[in-house]
Amino acid sequence: MTSIRWKSQDLKRMKTLGIEPSEANRQLELFKNPPPFASLDRPALTGDGIIRLNSSQEKSALRKFETARRKGRFIKFVPASGAASRMFHLLMKFLQRKPFSPEDLKREIINGEKDSRQFLEFMESISKFAFFDELGKVMAQRGLDLETLRREGRFGEILEALLLPNGLNYSQKPKGLIRFHTYSGGARTPLEEHLVEAVETVRDGGARCRIHFTVSEEHQKQCRGHFLEVREKHQKKFGVRFNARFSIQRSSTNTLAVDGDNRPFRDREGRLVFRPSGHGSLLENLNDLKGDLVFIKNIDNVTMEHSADSIVNWKKILGGYLVTLQEETFKFLRLLSIKKIKPGDLLKITTFTRKNLMIDLGDDFSSLSPAQKGRRLKEALDRPIRVCGVVVNTGEPGGGPFWVRGLDGRNTLQIVESAQIDLKQKKQKKIFEKSTHFNPVDLVCGVRHWNGKPFDLNRFRDSRAVFISRKSMEGKELKALELPGLWNGAMADWITLFVEVPLDTFNPVKTFFDLLKPAHQVKV
Questions:
Q1: Is 109 helix (H, G, I), strand (E, B) or coil?
Q2: Which of 325, 358, 328, 317 is nearest to 446 (CA)?
Q3: pLDDT tens digits, residue range 200-254?
Q4: Which of 67, 178, 384, 520 has its CA 20 to 30 A from that of 368?
């Protein structure tokens, strides 16, 4: 492993962040000797890795869900650290342009300028956005009328009020605090919509709803403040109590940056540069939660209440299906804890492991002794379980479900991003292109051992499944290291099941145009 002589100031910086020198050395080694690409065996397809539940299974799952929900076993975990800068990237581009008029835009549209067409569409549709009234108030305080400015083509003043700090500052706000949806009682943010969804999915028998948001440190105060501001009206409306907690990414999960020669990157003052390491770092937050059954869903994947029935129903089904599988798994783990297990029970456990959990026990399994089979089965079953909703791929970006061949020769079900695949290899590219589904980050996870104790989730991640990306700082290029993604390498050694869910359960907002889709607009 790479080992260098760190300066005293380097060691002090690492200590402040909570990073061991041995970990910094390990990261340097990963830059110099990057991990291999994932080895795809085949895409997970319906009937071969993707489960399509029948009506009887759905009804059974719903019953299991309700029992577990009343006992307070469920909690929502929402990664919400993303800023809205990408969402408003196009608008920022036009804000930075020299003054322009509607006539300029129309000429550019005739010449095939897509950005100009989209910008003009935004301005023509601005009254349909939930932030329209709030924007109008900000402009009125400046003695300006929003509709008049829009009609006269004075777009720069509108963009300033929407995007900059002296206005709504939407280019820098966390996405969770952007007004997404319009209701008769006022506009709602994604954070609020997650609270409303929590009422149906995690409310326990005592009307308590537990939900956890991971936010960036700079936005933590804003997010907490917004929750306290809206909590009471939603508690009163739905007759519940929200137990919401907020956490930030640990500084100890930051990763070292290097230059083009894989040497530690230093800023102008000679200090080591450590960078946030992507959503894979949130494994620590999930681990600290010490939950039982955890729904995971991104902050921007929300919808208005009129479109939520299918979403809520399928979250319940996924949760109940996990409970069903977990109960059987726990029952068999108890049997495997017995010193001598009956041959008939061993056969039942083997069948369940292969058929219901789709676990590859290895080509040599049949040649093992009963005791060896028992040990391998226990090893296979005694892990966290996740049930992942997957939807038919319609071109949205995201990780897909695949059978991946491990170093031990066994195939496992994994969520794989395109960056993890060597698409220059024709065979791997062909497998990738045959994929029919993708995972929209709609997971429910069982994170406790059969004896009720929480798993140490760090034991089940592939620490080498990192991403290396190129960035810049102070005019210099650097290479950054992202930890294994939360639903990729960070959960690589979990028991993974894929269940097909309807496409209408997936309603992400990646750009402001997504807010014009029916799921985000007032029902006419």
A1: helix
A2: 325
A3: 999 999 999 999 999 999 999 999 999 999 999 999 999 999 999 999 988 899 9
A4: 384
Count CA within 13 A, CB hemisphere, residue 276: 11
Residues of the chain with CATH 3.90.550.10: 8-84+174-323+438-520
What's the rounded Cα separation, in Å, for the pair 520 and 235?
23
> 190-201 and 309-336 are packed helices; what angle lies between their axes, rounded to 10 degrees?
50
| pLDDT class of 1 with cuts at 50, 70, 90 | low
Task: HSE, CB side, 13 Å, CA atoms: give it for residue 495.
Answer: 27
Q: Which uninterrupted H or E stretch holds 137?
A: helix 132-141
Name residue 63's amino acid: R
Assign 5 a pLDDT band (cuts: 50, 70, 90). confident
Per-residue tokens: 435: 């994929």
pLDDT value at position 398?
66
Beta-carbon-side half-sphere exposure of residue 332 (alpha carbons within 13 Å): 28
Question: Over 60: is that where the pLDDT of 2 sits?
Answer: no
Distance of CA 61 to the CA centre of its chain: 24
What is the C-alpha separation between 227 and 207, in angstroms, rounded?
18
Which pairing describes strands 208-214 and 241-247: parallel, antiparallel, or unpaired?
A: parallel
**Quick one: fold of 8-84+174-323+438-520?**
Spore Coat Polysaccharide Biosynthesis Protein SpsA; Chain A (3.90.550)
Q: How many residues comprise the chain?
A: 524
